[in-house]
Write a structure and sequence with these properties.
alpha/beta; Aspartate Aminotransferase, domain 2; 2 domains; 17% strand; 15 helices
């Protein structure tokens, strides 16, 4: 087996698909120290620049003094702390949902929710570009699993129309993490009402950034329905860690009983929830941060004029620059690193073959000068590579 593993790793290297970790020696921010080098970073999902916010650091220090550094037991034993409970109520109120439930990660939330709500006689309908954890949740549920072309409402309706499943669930990213575009959620909700289905929305990259006061993509589209269940991560725009699921009270109560990734896990330390409560307050009062972020997005789109590479159409903080081949994307990323700019190369299977890209992630912590430097080195790279 060990020899087989080595051969597989060697082949990944030949194909330009070998992934490597960077060693960070600084807080997550727009300027970081990684692998002992200083970089201007466009890698982070810290869209509002809260991961190193002084108020959140102070809150975590204080909360750790009050609650300790570990939860000690699963939620259903003695692990559910007052800080956890307060945050769940705060998040439900913030996104205008009846109830919310915390999970340790977005991955655990998605596999837990879908596998708990769906079963052998049910069907899950998923966008082909969904995050892997949505697919894994569907596989674990043992429901019939149908994938439709990206954002294709017509193809989705054809699948729903012919389905005889007892329960039907449409699962989709709200903002697609590698393309930066949004799902047509209003059309999906209409299909749910027409074909008696439910809509599960992964708002990992919209929560905190889109909608009124950062309430997320559902608010952006002004959608509200008992057929909607939403998930959002708390390690991106919220700047800390974890995830939550929000929906009808009966859904949340059922998940407390049946979502294995919730029932059989020790929750995150209470101090994280106290810190996230402070983070949600910053998000709610962070319209100036979202305004600055929109300015940065517009500036990049208006001033980056590459002929060899294509900036995909996105109005979100995720701005993908499609390069094509694996080795070409790696070469471009490495050139930028030599200039002190860090942008990750994203390759298959994360994205389709032939669409390897640089994934530019913008943050409210960036300045216009930071965007200007990025544009300058990309234009230089185009003449050299």
């Amino acid at each position: 087996m060990l020899n087989s593993l080595k051969l597989s790793l060697d082949q990944r290297k030949v194909d330009g698909l070998l992934r490597q970790r960077r060693l960070l020696d600084s807080p997550q921010a727009e300027h970081i120290v990684a692998n002992n080098q200083h970089f201007l970073s466009f890698c982070s999902n810290d869209y509002l620049g809260l991961a190193n916010h002084h108020d959140l650091i102070a809150t975590m220090q204080s909360a750790a003094q009050a609650s300790g550094v570990g939860s000690g037991a699963s939620n259903l034993i003695t692990g559910h702390h007052r800080y956890h409970d307060n945050l769940e109520k705060q998040l439900a109120k913030f996104v205008h949902m009846p109830a919310a439930l915390l999970f340790s990660t977005g991955y655990m939330a998605n596999i837990g929710v879908i596998s708990a709500l769906m079963g052998r006689n049910d069907a899950v309908f998923a966008d082909k570009l969904n995050h892997a954890c949505l697919n894994d949740g569907a596989f674990l549920s043992r429901a019939a699993f149908h994938r439709f072309p990206h954002n294709d409402v017509v193809a989705l309706e054809e699948l729903l129309k012919t389905s005889t499943a007892k329960h039907k669930l449409i699962a989709a990213d709200a903002v697609f993490s590698m393309d930066g575009d949004m799902a047509p959620l209003p059309e999906y909700l209409s299909l749910c009402e027409k074909y008696d289905a439910y809509l599960y929305v992964d708002d990992a990259h919209g929560f905190g950034v889109l909608g009124e006061h950062g309430q997320g993509t559902l608010n952006h589209f002004k959608l509200k329905s008992p057929r909607i269940i939403m998930m959002a991560t708390l390690g991106k725009a919220a700047g800390v860690a974890g995830a939550f699921v929000a929906g009808e009270q009966v859904v949340i109560e059922y998940l407390i009983q049946k979502a294995n990734s919730y029932v059989y896990s020790t929750p995150a330390p209470p101090a994280l929830s106290a810190t996230l409560s402070a983070s949600v307050n910053l998000i709610e009062h962070g319209d100036h941060l979202r305004s600055h972020l929109r300015t940065l997005i517009a500036y990049l789109k208006d001033n980056l004029n590459c002929r060899k590479w294509q900036l995909m159409p996105s109005d979100t903080a995720v701005q993908p620059l499609v390069v094509g081949g694996n080795h070409e994307a790696l070469a471009l990323s490495e050139y930028l690193q030599s200039c002190g700019v860090l942008v990750p190369a994203i390759r298959p299977p994360t994205v389709p073959v032939g669409t390897s890209r640089l994934r530019i992630s913008l943050s409210a912590a960036h300045s216009i000068e930071d965007i200007q430097k990025l544009i300058k080195v990309l234009h230089q790279a185009e003449t050299l590579l």
